[in-house]
Amino acid sequence: MTASRDGLLEELVREMPWYISASMRFQMAVADQLDMPLADVHAIGALVEFEPIGAARLAELMGMTSGAVTRLVDRLERGGYVRRSPDPADRRRVVLRAVPERVAEIGRYYASMGESWQRQLADCSDEQLRFLVEFLRRGRDDTQRETARLRSDGRAHGTRRRREP
């Protein structure tokens, strides 16, 4: 690697936490506009990404206890953001699905961000765009692995304090 490439990689690694932090602040602002807890906004995102999904899987993704995720789903159902329905593969089980019309209403808060990204990416080549898509997918996978590692090696999920065996 050349010195300039090393410098660019270091700069990228330094900038990534600030990008993530700014994204989290944006998510908090969206939650404020929707007058809902940040966890609820993130749960809607998880539902859209992984649906149909059971409550246990949602609790795992969110790092919440089963009781906490039940209350979260109850709030989202009352707000019309989620529907519970029988699992087609196992009718004893219930799966959760986001309500597309309500998700679209949330989408309006992301529209200007999407337009900004479109402008930034307009001059990128197909190769650059493919790279960015792959970078984001790998980053998401890495983040999910690190989240799982933290929850298994650090504090137990859904708790404030790790219980000793």
From TrEMBL:
This is Transcriptional regulator, MarR family. SUPFAM superfamilies: Winged helix' DNA-binding domain. Residues 1-141 form the HTH marR-type domain. GO terms for molecular function: DNA-binding transcription factor activity. It holds the Pfam family MarR_2. One of its GO terms (biological process) is response to stress. It comes from the Bacteria. Residues 143-165 are annotated as: Disordered.
